[in-house]
């Protein structure tokens, strides 16, 4: 089922005390740090709001910072404490990510079903984002009173979640045979995403597969069929950043809407335009800069100029590549496992992915499963 996500106006803040106990409160998405703290503690106290990631790095937030909850990175959490307690804060266990993978669960879902739910969810996030959020994001939200970039940040965050989901699952799969099957499945998911013109999640999957912790799994890659490797290498060429990502831009130029663009590259383009050109020239507005930014924003509008209708991917070359070969084995799962493959359950899984984002931990896991 494809359901519309509405733009965020309020959000449930989860803020932790030094003893790791959570406090939950519903606040406007643009609430300032001062407003968040006022809802929890007395204004005359010595409390601060701290953002901490899974590695234990802490950042004390300024009182006038806004929308800090939606801007949290992967596995980052908010903590409230006194100034003297900041150095005593430690990451929560949940911030470290899962200890076990979900290989067996993924095996029960088809690549097409997983890709379709990824695309459905991406479209919800993409359409909930207003074009002007790109401008706020690049120029700085603080320059526009009352402006929000929460929907854009939510969309970008999902890209990072998918990327690290790929790495996490492969590094937590200790069985070599299962890991090779999982790797092949992720490449197939990338194929379906590309056919569905979901370039954002396509690149998220590919970035995950190109992560150093995955690339060093030589024994796993050796078990991948040569046909699968060839299509993976073809997809790698689309990621080539040379000549200003020419390979990707040529491929996108051939697409007709609706499609989901590679959002991090769009943001990179806008950042390059903004930082490389002054807002004013001879005390006059630099309209050439504004035109270049508008042209990039127009790309987003063009992507969404036609309605998205969930559909099955075409059975093209990519499908034939994976269908060729030995006959499919019969499922050994009992009937009670079948409900896991329903769209609602797959959707729930996709929207609640648990990942490890600590680079050192991912490298250690990779070395443990393949010395």
TrEMBL record:
Residue ranges the record marks as coiled coil: none
Keyword Ligase attached: no
InterPro entries: Ras-like_GEF, Ras_G-nucl-exch_fac_CS, Ras_GEF_dom_sf, RASGEF_cat_dom, RASGEF_cat_dom_sf, Ubiquitin-like_domsf
Keywords in alphabetical order: Guanine-nucleotide releasing factor
Residue span(s) of domain Ras-GEF: 110-337
Entry superkingdom: Eukaryota
Pfam family, one: RasGEF
Transmembrane stretches, start-end: none
Identification of the protein by name: Ras-GEF domain-containing protein
Organism per entry: Characodon lateralis
